[in-house]
Design a protein that fits this description.
globular, five-stranded antiparallel beta sheet, mainly beta, 1 helix, about 35% strand, about 10% helix
């Protein structure tokens, strides 16, 4: 990932906007390997394997919006 900050365990992530524009769930990185991550997505009980180029670190306002209680 040149010019991008490496993701670490515990980082909040979202899918890249151009891949899934309507998918706004926040996930948390649970494991990091060379080309993939394990991400525990919102409302799921098991982490899923995701490619590094498909997710990005979530912005603070995205995380805050996801945490609001309705």
């Amino acid at each position: 990932m040149p010019n991008k900050k490496r993701l670490s365990v515990g980082d909040p992530v979202v899918y890249q906007n151009d891949l899934y524009p309507a998918y706004h769930n926040i996930g948390v990185v649970t494991e990091v390997s060379t080309n993939t991550l394990q991400v525990l997505w919102d409302k799921e009980q098991q982490p899923r394997i995701e490619r590094l180029d498909r997710v990005r670190k979530a912005k603070a306002n995205e995380v805050q919006a996801q945490c609001r209680i309705l």
